[in-house]
Specification:
heterodimer, A: 353 residues, mainly beta, Porin, 1 helix, 3% helix, globular, B: 131 residues, mainly alpha, 4 helices
Chain lengths: 353, 131
């Protein structure tokens, strides 16, 4: 009887353009999950060494462009508190990521990146919440230690969608303060070029999901950085304007177009340096460095295979990245194109359901 | 003699200049690497790490996750409602009474509501878990 009634109801609710797949029950969720992902990729980088336009190649380097192979792996543990009403108030996420690049024909630039991060999120109610993220990023080149960066970033969030229900499903404001300390292990050639620094950031972002198409998301951000370095070359202030958009190509989760996701991101940096730069002019220290940076990134990802709960199992990815640093110092005046394609295999056997 | 002295001084100056140029050149070759590597790290930071994105869990402060919580509540309510009408229907059957057409209609309606809630829950779950 129960089955007969359910089947009838399902048949009635099927929409021709979006077939439903009812859950077996109303969900008994475990509070934790553990996911692993592996992403091999291949690509081409037009300027691996960030070579300034028109400048001769540095000693020991025969070219500035190269094909590359990249392997990226990530493991994430996640815990969520039990729901209180319709709200899950607490979440803790810890993750580790390792990314390694291998460039063809250029030695000394094979970067390795180890990242550890921990993030705690607390929601006071449906409007207000905060996040605290701590991160450590350790970089190697050709296996040699290059730098370590420790950062912490508290965020205050305000969700205003309930006041804008006629046009937004999400209208969130994020205010982020960040502090980072970078320690570079390579000895600088002169004290002015010492890259060790404290970096302070303040970011204001607005995130918008339209009411009539919740498969798309838009974000606009303004960020200000202060970089306080040990070397005078790297004391600067940066104003960044950033816009990004992402979309799936269907609202219906059972439609294959839903599995195709595109993102675009653009930002412009206005960098203003505090002191005369050691690379400026024929003998150095002739004037202050000023940069205007344009950065464009677009990605396309398709989930070929997914778990029943919507997590990706196997996906193919592609991305294109363009960077143009317009600097008044020739050494830093460069452009770079990176194109890459690959796949991602995700293991999500320890489900939180 | 004076000419010889001038020539000698020019030669000394040229040698000194060469030495300075060489020193600057070597210095540049050394410093280039550290600074270039820093630039390449900054550039790389902007690229998308697909592994990190795919391994990321659903976030409690996201719209999709909060919709999922609402759908769970709706589903649980619909399930309880269906169980209530089912119990009423079966109670009559156990007592040998014939359930009325209204009982059947209520049970059918509650079953339909529950199935609809489960379908909405599944769609919300998929959205919450999509990266």
């Amino acid at each position: 009887m129960v089955l007969a009634v359910s089947a009838l109801a399902i048949a009635e609710d099927f929409e021709a353009n979006c077939p439903q797949e009812p859950a077996e029950d109303c969900g008994v969720y475990k509070p934790y999950s553990f996911k692993l992902s592996v992403s091999p990729a291949g690509g081409y980088d037009s300027n691996v060494i960030s070579q300034g336009d028109g400048l001769p190649l540095p000693q020991g380097v025969s070219r500035q462009d190269a094909g590359f192979f990249e392997i990226d792996t990530a493991a994430t543990f996640d815990w969520k508190a039990a729901a209180v009403g319709k709200l899950v108030p607490d979440q803790f996420t810890a993750s580790y990521e390792y990314k390694q690049d291998f460039y063809e024909g250029i030695s000394g630039y094979d970067g390795g990146e180890h990242s550890w991060s921990a993030q705690y999120t607390h929601l006071f109610n449906e409007q207000w919440g905060y996040k605290i993220e701590a991160k450590d990023k350790y970089i190697t080149f050709d296996g040699h230690s290059y730098s370590n960066r420790v950062s912490v970033a508290p965020t205050l969030e305000f969700e205003a969608a309930q006041y804008a229900q006629n046009f937004a499903k999400e209208l969130k404001t994020d205010l982020v303060f960040s502090f980072a300390n970078t320690d570079v292990f390579f000895a600088p050639s002169i004290p002015a070029r010492n890259l060790d620094a404290n970096n302070y950031g303040l970011q204001l972002s607005e995130i918008f999901i339209p009411a009539n198409y919740d498969a798309a998301k838009f974000k606009v951000s303004y960020i200000h950085f202060w970089n306080d370095a040990d070397g005078s070359d790297y004391d600067y202030g940066r104003n960044r304007l950033q816009v990004s958009a992402e979309t799936r190509f269907s609202k219906c989760t059972t439609n294959r177009w839903y599995d195709l996701k595109a993102t675009v991101q653009y930002f412009h940096d206005f960098d203003s340096y505090d002191h005369d730069n050691s690379h400026a002019g024929a003998t150095g220290f002739a004037f202050k460095r000023q940069d205007g940076k344009n950065d464009f990134l677009t990605t396309l990802s398709f989930d070929v295979s997914k778990y029943a709960d919507g997590n990706s199992k196997f996906a193919v990815n592609a991305q294109y990245h363009y960077l143009r640093d317009n600097s008044n110092v020739a050494f830093f005046n460069y452009r770079e194109h990176v194109i890459q394609a690959g796949c991602t295999l995700t293991f999500d056997e320890m489900k939180w359901r | 003699m004076a000419m010889k002295t001038i020539t000698c001084n020019i030669a000394k100056a040229a040698s000194a200049l060469c030495l300075v140029s060489l020193t600057v050149s070597v210095t540049k070759a050394q410093e280039d690497r550290g600074e270039r590597l820093q630039e390449s790290i900054s550039a790389s930071d902007q690229r998308t790490n697909f592994s990190a994105r795919k391994a990321a869990p659903s976030k409690i402060d996201s719209y999709a996750f909060q919709e999922l919580q609402k759908e769970i509540k709706k589903c649980q309510f619909a399930q309880q409602n269906f169980a209530k009408y089912q119990e009423k229907y079966q109670e009559k059957e156990r007592k040998g009474k014939k359930p009325s057409p209204r009982d059947k209609e209520e049970l059918k309606k509650a079953g339909a509501e529950w199935a609809k809630a489960r379908a909405a829950l599944k769609a919300a779950e998929r959205k919450a878990n999509a990266d």
